[in-house]
Amino acid sequence: MPARDAEPFPRAVLDVLDAAADRPVFEHGTRVVTGAEVLDLVARISTGLRREGLGPGDGVALLLGVNPEAFATVLAAHAVGARVLGVRPGLPDEQVHHLLSLDITAIITDSAVPRTDPAPRTLTVDKLRKTRADGPPRCDGRPGDVARLIHTSGSTGVPKACAQTYAAMTDAWAARPDAWPPAIRELASRLERYLVFGSLSSQVMSEYAVVAITAGGTAVVADRPGFPDAITRHRASASVITVPRLVKLVAAQRRAPADLSTLRALMVSGSPLTAARHREALDVLGPVVFHGYGQTETGMIAMATPADPPGTVGRPPAAVRVEIRAADGTPVPPGVDGELFVRTPAQADAYWGDAVRSAEVFAGGWVRTRDLGHFDADGHLRLTGRTRDVVIVNANLHYAGPIERVIAEHPDVAEAYVVAVPDEDTGEAVHAFVVPTGDRPPDLDALRALVTARLGAACAPVRVTAIAEPPLAPSGKPDKRLLSPTRT
Length: 488
What we know:
acid-thiol ligase activity; seven-stranded mixed sheet; ANL_N_sf; Rossmann fold; GMP Synthetase, Chain A, domain 3; globular; Acyl-CoA synthetase (AMP-forming)/AMP-acid ligase II; alpha/beta; 488 residues
């Protein structure tokens, strides 16, 4: 067993909980849980996992809700050195089965619901938490082992799982105030009551919870996370919000302002925020908007505080390297758009079991983001586009190609072309242009059902337009840039 001060992740988080002994770190309804109580849960659950024979290198899938036990279970699975895969709610069954086939030894769930997943056994949190701990939790992760698989959207047919090692997670800054970049330090001072909801398998949701607890705040579970009600109901000081939800919140505040006097920080993530939307949010909500930029593959790359220029994502911190490169791979000067290549302390280094896509994205210690942008004269990073053929729905990337292939399987469709269109509810949505096999266009409801069953509801087209043939580029290949929602 390594010396305590040399133990890998999640040692820093456990030390934070130990220091928070009698202080509330989680609030769930009327229940308040202290740091010592969460640490005791980690000790008991990790002991239970070891008695089940689980340890370094074993794959453990977590199908959990949002509560203190789920948080403790995540930490316990890392404490035993497992390769942890969190499965977020709402994925189609086909994608869940795929994730649970990624060399998973055991599944941990909230309750003993019978499952038919491809893992040899299912454990429950209720059973594990009743184990008598064999002492304070220890951290057995091996630096080079994969600590966490964070899956991207499943729009390529199956989700890609970003592999992050224990060494990378140990280098992460969430539980180490001395390593916080300036923007995170400013944010941390506002996280007295941080709303958590949706899934603790969300990289953003869980890591800001760790920042909040480290800063002396409390993670407050919002079982009904709608805005602005959740903020007022829980007297929240901070939360994560997507661009579509932010737009709706701003509109609601213009119509009938709710009491948001406790709110000090909204972390906007998942998709770019235009300068106009950014200014409007600051005008209506006040200086509470933090605009984060990152990827599943990298974690946080940069963050704009309320004092940074609207439309930017701030300046990357010193620990993060960003190069803007031209198509030939050479760096470009400030003010010139190019593709972003980045290096972060806690980045993933591969897609699990996918050498081909790994080689496309991870090379020489750099992560190719496939996002376009530039540095302005003051060193602020501005995002201007993307090189990927994707639709961003509710902050999740969905690749157009797999959606097109599924739509083209319908007997009434000869060819299919998918483009992103603005959507007030989801940010972007899928618009499909199809070449029919006969005289009649395919039924939209039938196409939506087909795509939903295979790829999930977020990939289903909101509109279908029949075309005789696609527009062509000079090369003779279809050019989707010439397709627009008004084309008939």
